[in-house]
Amino acid sequence: MKKIILLSFTILLNICVFAQDTDRFYATMARQDARELKADAPDQIDILAEKGYEAVVFMSPSAAELLHGRILVHGPGYIFKSSYDEAISSINKTITTTSSRMVFNITEDEKVNEALALMSVQNIEDHIIELENYGTRYHTLAPGTQSAIDLKAKWEAMAALYGRTDVSVRLYNHNNTPMPSVIMTITGAQFPDEFVIVGGHLDSTSNQGNNDAPGADDDASGIATITEAIRTLFEADFVPQRTIEIMAYAAEEIGLVGSGEIAQEYSSNNVNISAYVQFDMTNYNGSANDVYLITDFTNSSLNGFLMQLMDHYNASGAHQFTYGTSLCNYGCSDHASWHNEGYMAAFPFEASFGQHNPNIHTPNDTFSISGTADHALKFAKLCVEFLVETAKHNGLIGVSEVSEELYDIYTSNNTLYYNFDQYDATIDSIVIYDIAGRAIVAVDDPENEGNISLGHLSSGIYIVNVQTTYTEFVNKKIKID
Ligand code: BES
Ligand code: ZN
User: Fold this and answer.
1) From the CA of 462, how far away is ligand 1's center (Å)?
2) Which ligand places an atom closest to the C-alpha of 251?
3) pLDDT band at 1 (very low <50, low <70, confident <90, very high)
4) Long-range contacts formed by 353-357: CB under 8 A, 24+ apart
5) 216 Cβ inside 6 Å of ligand 1
6) CB-neighbour burial class of residue 208 (10 A; exposed 0-12, middle 13-18, buried 19+)
7) Phi/psi of residue 404, each to 5°?
8) Does any ligand 1 atom lie closer than 6 A to the CB of residue 108?
9) In what order do the strands lie in the sheet with 460-468?
């Protein structure tokens, strides 16, 4: 009852306040930004709802100005919504996953370390400078399209050099830009229909005329990073069991156009993508840590897995680097195109947001700002770790059983029962895999105690994978008669 009174009071209050100012408008923005604005200019903005990292606000143009002033070289910092309902439904939009879930685990130390040792910082430097030398890769200009044609040839030559017959490279033509994207496909040996994808954008832009847009960090660095990762996998003779694609997008800078069209097509064809990782800006070392995982418009299980990878491979020794997390505040790069289609996406970024390369989108975004590709090399390492550990075989091999005393998981009468009440962890998901590693049943955010009907599964051995918040997960083998 108390709640209802309070709610109606708030609504009444809001109507009174909003009625005074007809210039005000609805928007969604980062929850953190909304709260800070509210603290600084309480009369200019109202927070109407919050969900996850996002907030729905009703604000004045002067609040928008204030926000824009803080967002640096970034876009406006909010997304305009034409009505309250539109704003609310956009933050409540539940993104339904179109792909089956895979087991994230780390088992391939030998192959990963072999590939990491083959990596060349010089190759990354050379490739960044090669792309910078187009002068511009703006999506409507001739050098932009030429850079895509040349990248296709470069990737093809790379595959040929290592005698790869499982590789093909294509140009992807778009509806809303004359520039094509470039896609390399390495067909999976065991599960060709399951994809792991990494990408970055090939186009560039400049706020001082698009003829002078070297785009070295934004985003020649990302293209050079994924190219060197793939080259080392070829040199290490890595044969993926799932299909790997690497993508260099057209027209990111005008609103994620290239990746948006590709992600929509993959989604409407129900392409099963296990995970996607974006590399956009990897070579400016602006913060205390090296890699910053962007935690909005990305998937927390995948972010957790990338953290596990860095804990495992990069915490000490020759490949050591550090990581943190940051927010982009909205869908600031191509990962958002995949995220919006319901795929698991992640975005490891060069610095904490705001401490990133200040020269992007200007004629000064050149390699000389960094002078070395050391920073990008760390991202190439993470890219290799991700690709090897997700594109590998994972059926029964490498799956550890849990002890009965630790977690209460059992089957009876074609039903799986589980009870995690006595443990502290929050359960993110329970996924049941067949022995080939295919997800058969997935339950997100389950209660701590419950059951799942298994009546529809044919008899055989299955793996129950329980993923808990961030880093921990357990596997248990079950038998269905
Ligand atoms: N590389 C940037 C994104 C970026 C910039 C991330 C600064 C973090 C810090 C990307 O190329 C870009 O410019 N994105 C646009 C938005 C996009 C939807 C056109 C931006 O951030 O303004
Ligand atoms: Zn940009």
Assistant:
1) 43
2) 1
3) very low
4) 353/292, 353/294, 353/326, 353/327, 353/328, 353/329, 354/72, 355/286, 355/287, 356/281, 356/284, 356/286, 357/217, 357/218, 357/281, 357/283, 357/284, 357/286
5) no
6) exposed
7) -60, -35
8) no
9) 439-444, 427-434, 460-468, 473-480
Q: At a CB cut-off of 8 Å and minimum separation 6, what does 334 contact?
A: 199, 200, 201, 249, 252, 256, 258, 259, 278, 280
Grade residue 17 by pLDDT with cuts at 50, 70 and 90.
very low
Residue 196 and residue 230 in contact, taking contact as beta carbons nearer than 8 Å: no
pLDDT band at 440 (very low <50, low <70, confident <90, very high): confident
Q: Calculate how far, in angstroms, residue 333's C-alpha sits from the geometric centre of ligand 1.
A: 6
360: its two tokens: 């992007």
Ligand 1 pocket member 353 (CB < 6 A): yes
Peptide bond into 218 cis (omega under 30): no
Which one of the listed residues 218, 228, 341, 365 is annotated catalytic? 218
Model confidence at 221: pLDDT above 60? yes
Which protein residues have a CB closer than 5 Å to ligand 2 (ion)?
218, 253
The per-residue pLDDT of the chain, averaged, comes to 86
CA 117/CA 81 separation, integer angstroms: 49
210's tokens: 């698009």
* 218 is known as an active-site residue: yes
Q: Which residues pair with 183 in a beta bridge?
A: 170, 247
C-alpha 149/C-alpha 195 separation (Å) is: 24
Q: Does pLDDT of 99 surpass 90?
A: no
N-terminal to C-terminal alpha carbon distance within the chain: 51
pLDDT band of 107, cuts 50, 70, 90: confident
What digits encode the pLDDT tens for the residues 359-392? 999 999 999 999 999 999 999 999 999 999 999 8
The reported pLDDT for the residue numbered 7 is 38
